[in-house]
Amino acid sequence: MPWPLLLLLAVSGAQTTRPCFPGCQCDVETFGLFDSFSLTRVDCSGLGPHIMPVPIPLDTAHLDLSSNRLETVNESVLAGPGYTTLAGLDLSHNLLTSISPTAFSRLRYLESLDISHNGLAALPTESFTSSPLSDVNLSHNRLREVSVSAFTTHSQGRALHVDLSHNLLHRLTPHSAGAGPPAPTIQSLNLAWNRLRTVPDLRDLPLRYLSLDGNPLAAVGPGAFRGLAGLTHLSLGSLQGLPQLAPYGFQELKSLQVLDLSGNPKLTWAGAEVFSGLGSLQELDLSGTGLVPLPEPLLLHLPALQSISVGQAVRCRRLVREGTYPRQPGSSPKVALHCVDTQEPAAKGPDAL
């Protein structure tokens, strides 16, 4: 066997099982030359609250404590050999109604934390300051108000994804700039299906992805997205009530590439100026809205637009027809949308704007 192939087999991971706490399962994955490095995934899900605190191997990288009817989690039950080096912790589908501010203070290497499907009503402001988190899932809880500063982590600039969807949020307290800790490094924020009536103040966050799907937003007007010039993906699908898009409501979003407005049958047209400032927008989803037929001046405000989804299954792509060549001085190429019903085999002709 050739030496390169032998080396590849030596450094690739291999998975085995090892003795574990009764009821739990410990899977060991080995890496490196001659299996010189190992990590253990411990699954203690669905056993009941009596297992806490559960002893785990020293090289445990991920611990699954989901579906155990746990009512409390504090520093003492997340301590001991094996816990301090955890990179992933799953506490989902339990009965947690609160967490101690110091519950995760000893987890200095924790990168992924799942506390979804619990009954959390509040989030302490310093819950994650000791861990280099990159992924926090708090979806399907009972949070009503959360401070953005609560997601300050020991990240050293690492991008953070936060999922707060399916809560009872009616307000997000903005981060207080000044002498305190720096703004959280949240790049992806899911606020879908909460009770937000206005776009929250998220300035100073390095956001690139934001979902506000399913919220009862009353309007999106000028200044709604102030301070989010780096946002590239925005989803406003299936908004509750009667949402209104005011002219220049998206003008701060200079870097936005994808805008999803789908599933809003009551959404009405307020003029092409609604999309003013979206010079980088490439994809626009208007399926399931009242914003059809498309207004003629639309493409003038969206010079980078490549595709639009309209109707139930119609997708349009931008076409540029150069016309006669050489082009006459002062003339511009003719822009058209070529629309295709994805449920029909034959394509419709181009609709010139």
TrEMBL record:
It is found in: Secreted. SMART domains: LRR_TYP. Keywords: Developmental protein, Glycoprotein, Leucine-rich repeat, Repeat, Secreted, Signal. Gene3D superfamilies: Ribonuclease Inhibitor. The keyword Secreted applies. PANTHER family: SLIT RELATED LEUCINE-RICH REPEAT NEURONAL PROTEIN (PTHR24373), TSUKUSHI (PTHR24373:SF352). Interacts with FZD4 (via FZ domain); competes with WNT2B for binding to FZD4, inhibiting Wnt signaling and repressing peripheral eye development. Interacts with TGFB1; the interaction contributes to regulation of the hair cycle. Interacts with netrin. Interacts with CCN2. This is Tsukushi. It comes from Neovison vison. The gene is TSKU.
